[in-house]
Amino acid sequence: MKKYNFILILLFFFQSCKAQKKEASNFIYHTADYYESGIIREESIYNSSLGIYEYKQYSDDSLNGIVKNIKIYIRFTQQDLNDINQLHKSLKSEMSDCYFQNNIIVHKSTITFDSLKDNFDSINCANNENSDFIKIENKIEASINSSSIYKTTFYWKFYKK
After folding, report:
1. Per-residue confidence band for 17, with pLDDT thresholds at 50, 70 and 90
2. How many domains does the chain have?
3. What's the CA gap between 97 and 128, in Å, rounded?
4. Which tens digit of pLDDT belongs to each residue from 67-83?
5. Distance in angstroms (rounded) separating the CA atoms of residues 11 and 44
6. pTM for the complete prediction?
7. Mean pLDDT of the region 120-148
8. 37: left (phi over 0), alpha (psi -120 to 50) or beta
């Protein structure tokens, strides 16, 4: 009987150690495009720990507010999460990228790792291209855009003009 108890204790010990092993960091990916007036035109937020992708489109005046608000569930594969985590660990650069036109912001993207809080508003923009960030952003965008639920929900983005 003692032998079985010892085996059970040992099994629970290894099981708890395995549960604590973290395969990949969670992240929040937030991107926004702006009107010329500096008001957000549309934004997308993906939370990897929840698997929720949210898209918001705003009117160009402050009276009408949100025109579209769509939430879908997209789960990345463990391999995609591991790849993103490896890129993040190897690059060690600031996780933001911004584009300006005539000194007015037209696009901002951020990735916040290992946090429940999105740091989009607290990250300052610089007017320089962050190639390290773009590598991670492209991987995230590819994973989102290849999802069948994304293609079905945002069908208008796939129409050829």
Report:
1. very low
2. 1
3. 8
4. 899 999 999 999 999 99
5. 43
6. 0.79
7. 86
8. alpha
At position 11, the amino acid (one-letter code) is L
End-to-end CA gap in the chain: 73
Query: Cα 147 vs. chain centroid, distance in angstroms?
Result: 14
Please say if the pLDDT value at position 122 is more than 90.
Answer: no
- pLDDT, the chain, mean: 82
- For residue 37, which amino acid is it? S
Domain that holds residue 147: 27-158
Q: Is residue 7 part of a domain?
A: no
User: Helix/strand/coil (H, E, C) string of the chain?
Assistant: CHHHHHHHHHHHHHHHHHHHCCCCCCEEEEEEEECCCCCEEEEEEEECCCCEEEEEEECCCCCCCEEEEEEEECCCCHHHHHHHHHHHHHHCCCCEEEEEECCEEEEEEEEEECCCCCCCCCCCCCCCCCHHHHHHHHHHHHHHHCCHHHHHHCHHHHCCC
Does residue 140 lie within any of the structural domains?
A: yes
